[in-house]
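User: Sequence recovery, please. Input:
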């Protein structure tokens, strides 16, 4: 997921719109869902509750994806992904409130550090050419909360249904939003159809599809307050390092501090819940 986060901007910057990148992502979800069903011996739960929970997980993930692509048009990945790495805050708080899971002192310190990270990441130094204004922060909060709630729903759904069924309905709901992605696409602009367009997007999005499947399995076997921070503790590190190498820039020290605080927050929550 960390490598995926750093590379998903490349097709868009080569002329293949991010909205079409979403379509490619949904197509990579299909064989991954088939693989998951095969693992479960082709057994699919189709009661109303399972369908509702599975589709809710999928819609939350898909909406986060669509908005993420828009966010990366106005802000670079090395800024966006440290902020999105704070999704465990949402998942953990929901798990504590509704699933009665418990966290300790380090977990609460991690949540406080996350809030500080958001404030630091919102700093805009004078003359910043990579991003301007605070719109990116508002837009990036949509996948942050969507994926945070998604993590909670995945954990909740895993109590009554198989992970493979959850992922299958994730795929279905993602496919249902393809018309929205196509509607958002400006087809009046030239679209690049070479290797660095849909084909490279497909290779990159496979990482996301496989990562999402592994995440569902992780929530199947572990508590939300453990899986959520651990699943996002190392991914953003790779994203930031690779993205900074691609952009060949060094952010303002305050923003770097915000990135480190975001990663530290996820790490603290992960360490606390694995004690």
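Assistant: Recovered sequence (275 residues):
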């Amino acid at each position: 997921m960390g490598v995926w986060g750093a590379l998903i901007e490349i097709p868009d910057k080569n002329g293949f719109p991010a909205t079409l990148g979403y379509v490619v992502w949904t197509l990579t979800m299909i064989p991954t869902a088939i693989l998951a069903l095969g693992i479960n011996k082709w057994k699919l739960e189709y009661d109303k509750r399972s369908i509702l929970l599975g589709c809710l997980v999928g819609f939350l993930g898909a909406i986060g994806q669509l908005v993420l692509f828009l966010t990366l048009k106005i802000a670079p990945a090395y800024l966006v992904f440290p902020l999105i790495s704070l999704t465990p805050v949402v998942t953990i708080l929901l798990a504590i409130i509704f699933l009665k899971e418990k966290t300790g002192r380090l977990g609460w310190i991690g949540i406080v550090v996350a809030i500080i990270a958001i404030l630091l990441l919102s700093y805009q130094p004078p003359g910043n050419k990579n991003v301007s204004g605070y719109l990116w922060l508002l837009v990036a909060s949509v996948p942050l909360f969507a994926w945070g709630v998604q993590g909670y729903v995945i954990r909740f759904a895993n109590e009554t249904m198989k992970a493979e069924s959850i992922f299958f309905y994730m795929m279905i709901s993602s496919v249902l939003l393809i018309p929205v992605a196509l509607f958002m696409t400006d087809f009046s602009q030239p679209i690049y159809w070479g290797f660095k367009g849909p084909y490279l997007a497909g290779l990159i999005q496979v990482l996301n599809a496989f990562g999402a499947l592994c995440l569902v399995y992780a929530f199947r076997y572990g508590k939300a307050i453990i899986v959520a921070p651990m699943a996002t503790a190392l991914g953003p590190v790779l994203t930031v390092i690779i993205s900074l190498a691609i952009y060949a820039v060094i952010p303002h020290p305050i923003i770097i501090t915000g990135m480190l605080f975001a990663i530290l927050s996820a790490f603290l929550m992960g360490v606390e819940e694995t004690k």
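The two ends are 25 Å apart (CA to CA).
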